[in-house]
Amino acid sequence: MIRLEGVTRFYGERAVVDDVSLVVEKGEMAVVVGRSGSGKSTLLRMINRLVEPTSGLISIDGRDVSTVPAHVLRRGIGYVIQGHGLFPHRTVADNIATVPRLLGWPRDRIARRVSELLELLQLSPARFSGQYPHQLSGGEQQRVGVARALAAGPDIVLMDEPFGALDPIIRSKAQDDLKAIQARLGATIVLVTHDMDEAFRLGDRIAVMEAGRVLQYGTPRDMIARPADPRVAELTGSGEGALRLLALVRAGDAAEPFDASTPPPSHSVPAGASLREALASLLWTGEGELAVTGDDGRPVGRVTLASVLRHGRSP
Amino acid sequence: MKVSVGTIARLVGAILLAAFLVRPEAFAPLFAPLTSNGAPPIYRQGNLLALAWSHFQIVVFATLASTLVAVSLGVLVTRRSGAEFLPLSRAVVNVGQTFPPVAVLALTVPLVGFGDGPTFIALFAYGLLPIFENTLVGIQQVPAAVTEAARGCGMTPAQRLFRVELPLALPQIMTGTRLAVVVAIGTATIGSTVAAKGLGEVIIAGLLSDNTAFIVQGGLVVALMAALIYDAMLAAERSIILRLGLPANERE
């Protein structure tokens, strides 16, 4: 659990981060979203002491971070930055091994861990271990950056615009993968982004920042249903609220059982797709309902246009 | 494997240099036309191989010393705590470069006496600037994201320097060292005016006895040595750039 209490950081006369208090629960993904210059990166960088707060308290699992030597603290916290920051003179395997080496792990344990992580991020160890960062594509570099951050099995991972350098198609895949990895590892993640869609897609909780202050911190649903501030409503896009709500619900969760008396729908969506995608498909096909298919491709239920519309109604 | 013209030229140059240093008499007919009144065409007052070797040694030791000092200074002034020493360090290495080596010799002879000492000091001072400036550039051009990642991973300042900054600056530092070495090989010849053992002896002997053959052979040996060493160091730099996977800089 990460707790920030009254955290403030001045640069000269200007408070870049202004009296921020929030708690990130264990295993959650908190997304800090804001425009550039809103102080979101500075806030993130104070958690692993890359920036020291001017005042206020930051604690991890009840322990004040300022009492831990900075380099020791950072070895226990994963850190992913935009443009990956891989060491260009080291191979993929050596990059990933950075923190375990600093921690003095034995060689064979490091080697095992490196291949484990490469597998986890869908990079074949045989092919990638010995390559240098400049030989990889943008998406591969990004994944190696994530693998490096996860190498020593940190409980907390900080990510500063981790997908910022990726093109949109790879980005959504990388976001899905991150969600899956987090579910599997149970790590607490704090992610900073300027992209509201990314925040809604990834965040268990979202903190909206502007001019150094957190305007609202809550679940995505709260943000849309009860914006605490007109600026939050503006940032979350008031006109798109319904679509954002739909994007938060999985078709599988909204599916209704089949009615044996009616013929099955001719089109389908996978259970993992959101209702927003289901709506798009309904509009496109002109149908009134869709079959929802499970991982094996067999229908598990159906969603109707009426039920989709109901999910998008203002709460 | 394709053998380039350059490789062949280098090989021929190296063989010629070695042959001339070991058996200079064999080349007598070549230099004879440059002499008059029956003067000897080949320098025989000292062993050419020994002279070349001590010439080379002075250059190597002086450049090693300037590398050590210049890289340390470069590291110091790129630390946050040492940034204020940048103007001072620049001034020091600039004086080293702009002060004529001949003047350095003249000033140091009364202090350290005749022999290799004054030459060593002159070459050392002369080599500081290129190595210092290249070290600065090399360290400053390490991408900000990379140093940020090194901090974020929990490297101590010393670990960042030795595991990230210096390895990434190495090719640039080597460029500085290469320039310093090549300049030093030529400059070391004047050391012979204050009794340093080196190839300058041959040239000075030629000047004193008005023997063009000596001047030409001394100059050729020095030039060939400089060209071959420059090439070898450039090749080493390139192989490191390739091995480190760094984008090859456009140079030469």
Automatic annotation (TrEMBL), chain A:
Residues 2-236 form the ABC transporter domain. SUPFAM superfamilies: CBS-domain pair, P-loop containing nucleoside triphosphate hydrolases. The keyword Glycoprotein does not apply. Keywords: ATP-binding, CBS domain, Nucleotide-binding, Transport. GO terms for molecular function: ATP binding. Residues 261-315 form the CBS domain. InterPro entries: AAA+_ATPase (IPR003593), ABC_transporter-like_ATP-bd (IPR003439), ABC_transporter-like_CS (IPR017871), CBS_dom (IPR000644), CBS_dom_sf (IPR046342), P-loop_NTPase (IPR027417). The keyword ATP-binding applies. Gene3D superfamilies: P-loop containing nucleotide triphosphate hydrolases (3.40.50.300). It comes from the Bacteria. It holds the Pfam family ABC_tran. Belongs to the ABC transporter superfamily. PANTHER family: OSMOPROTECTANT IMPORT ATP-BINDING PROTEIN OSMV. This is ABC transporter ATP-binding protein. It comes from Alsobacter ponti.
UniProtKB/TrEMBL annotation, chain B:
CDD domains: TM_PBP2 (cd06261). The keyword Transport applies. It comes from the Bacteria. The keyword Nucleus does not apply. Keywords: Membrane, Transmembrane, Transmembrane helix, Transport. The chain crosses the membrane at residues 54-77, 179-208, 214-236. Belongs to the binding-protein-dependent transport system permease family. It is a multi-pass membrane protein. This is ABC transporter permease. Gene3D superfamilies: MetI-like. Residues 52-233 form the ABC transmembrane type-1 domain. InterPro entries: ABC_transp_perm/SBD, MetI-like, MetI-like_sf. It is found in: Cell membrane.
